[in-house]
């Protein structure tokens, strides 16, 4: 893991992304304070969460809350886009 300033990250963003793609994690600082971490993206598309929810029994209150949340949201894109 390495550290770079926000200015350095801005000036070499493509290189920063290349490093993250190779599995490296970079800490971005501003005025000596940590402000962000850039690293490899999680390869999951949510299938583990779906499987967990499908395999676990939930109490009635939770199930009602989830159903209400689903009804309140209108998705214009897939919930878990493919990589």
From TrEMBL:
InterPro entries associated with the record: Antitoxin_Phd/YefM, YefM-like_sf
Top-rank taxon, per record: Bacteria
Coiled coil: none
Xref: SUPFAM superfamilies: YefM-like
Function according to Swiss-Prot or TrEMBL: Antitoxin component of a type II toxin-antitoxin (TA) system.
Family: Belongs to the phD/YefM antitoxin family.
UniProt protein name: Antitoxin
Organism: Agromyces albus
